[in-house]
């Protein structure tokens, strides 16, 4: 595994009572991006947080903010996410009726446009719109909760996505059940960007640095 793998801790697993401090601690421990899981209680059963919380975190962080919108009709939230300070906005293929238009709106806002694929959704669905995409997110769990088990059959899908991307400047991100054991499998299949929630925040702040290094394969 190379140093160029981006590690994006998901604050879904952080202590919500001291979120800004948690973000600072993972940044100091070597996090590259901050992954922000926005859930609407509709596309997924769970509710998490939205633009006001992200805007509050933005005040004390200059990291790349990577928003993962697990919401129906995400197009209505793009302006709020941009204004809250998000750098990248990822929407779910399954949540967008007019995905091409939604990606255009994200790009027009000057954000990196990402598309997440649930485990049942094939990568071929993206083949006609690759020019609008800056990031493909392969879900290795069904979205909605942290702490789930990595679905190992998704390794083949990561390979397919890497092949589809070819030499295009598209990040290949993996999210769900990433640990020091599963991270090398995802990277070997072609991922260059790993989201990890419970594997990082579950170990305690004094071990964030060691854990990020371990997930990076160092
Ligand atoms: C799942 C979220 C993930 C989640 C990952 O719906 O998109 O980002 O926080 O959590 P872990 O790493 O615990 O599987
Ligand atoms: Zn996520």
What share of residues is helical?
25-40%
- What is the spatial order of strands in the main beta sheet? 1-8-7-6-5-4-3-2
- Secondary structure class reads alpha/beta
The fold-level CATH name is TIM Barrel
Whole-Å distance between the termini? 8 Å
What is the overall pLDDT average? Answer: 97
Element-by-element helix/strand order:
EHEHEHEHEEHEHEHH
What is the domain total for the residues? Answer: 1
The count of β-strands is 8
Outline the structure in words.
The protein has a single domain (6-216), classed as Aldolase class I (TIM Barrel), CATH 3.20.20. The chain has 8 helices and 8 strands. Strand 3, helix 3 and strand 4 (88-92) form a beta-alpha-beta unit. The chain has helices at 19-28, 51-58, 78-84, 99-108, 154-165, 183-188, 198-201, 208-216; strands spanning 6-9, 33-39, 64-70, 88-92, 112-117, 135-139, 171-175, 193-196. Helix 2 packs parallel to helix 3 (78-84). The longest helix has 12 residues, at 154-165. An 8-stranded parallel beta sheet has the order 1-8-7-6-5-4-3-2. D-xylitol-5-phosphate is lined by residues 10, 12-13, 35, 37, 68, 141, 143-148, 175-178, 195-199. Zinc ion (ZN) binds next to strand 2.
Comma- or semicolon-separated keywords:
binds zinc ion, eight-stranded parallel β-sheet, single chain, binds D-xylitol-5-phosphate, TIM Barrel, 8 helices
Task: Break the fold down into its secondary structure elements and pairings.
Blueprint (H helix, E strand, L loop, with lengths): L5 E4 L9 H10 L4 E7 L11 H8 L5 E7 L7 H7 L3 E5 L6 H10 L3 E6 L17 E5 L14 H12 L5 E5 L7 H6 L4 E4 L1 H4 L6 H9 L2
Parallel strand pairs: 1-8, 2-3, 3-4, 4-5, 5-6, 6-7, 7-8
